[in-house]
Write a structure and sequence with these properties.
This protein is mainly β. The protein contains one helix and ten strands; from the N terminus they run αββββββββββ. The chain has an eight-stranded antiparallel barrel with strand order 1-3-5-6-7-8-9-10. A hairpin with a 7-residue loop joins strand 8 and strand 9. It is elongated.
Length: 161
């Protein structure tokens, strides 16, 4: 009986691993279109910020034959000194018109209040059309270039059968 259970679990894990499809791309984000900041007042350079803006894919991710096209982000950050903890959502429209949303969480390094780099993780939370029921996760790593942040995105996804 234990051999059967082990074989079944091994087969199940192998099937799940095969179903994952790797994705990667590069997106460029400018300064938020809307942004508000509130100073906490307990120490210098401690604030809460919320921002919303758009990004453009310089190397689109391809998911189920659809290429990522337009991004919209909404982020909440707590800045303290030269770093910030970020949380938020990114919604992307693909070239086929389908959409997907990811939840992001990460950290940003800053100097004199300007972003230098950021990195973190993301998880799919929803999709429409061919992307309905999408699951997956990944990482992002960004470097500032003037007023833009160039972000490399990597991960994997799975669609329902």
């Amino acid at each position: 009986m234990r051999t059967f259970q082990f074989t079944f679990v091994a087969l199940l894990l192998t099937t799940a691993a095969v179903a994952q499809t790797k994705v990667s791309g590069t997106v460029q984000c400018g300064e938020p279109d809307q942004q508000s900041a509130l100073d906490v007042g307990d120490r210098p350079h401690h604030s809460f910020m919320i921002g919303q803006g758009k990004c453009s894919w310089t190397q689109p991710m391809e998911i189920a034959g659809a290429k990522s096209k337009d991004d919209a982000f909404t982020m909440f950050s707590e800045a303290s000194g030269n770093s910030a903890h970020e949380r938020g959502y990114v919604t992307d429209t693909t070239d086929t018109g389908d959409k997907y949303a990811v939840r992001v969480e990460g950290t940003m390094a800053m100097a004199d209040g300007k972003p230098l780099s950021e990195k973190g993780t993301w998880t799919f939370v929803s999709g429409t059309g061919k992307l309905k029921g999408i699951k997956g996760k990944g990482t992002f790593d960004g470097k500032a270039d003037g007023d833009n942040m160039n972000i490399t995105v990597e991960g994997e996804y799975e669609l329902p059968k």
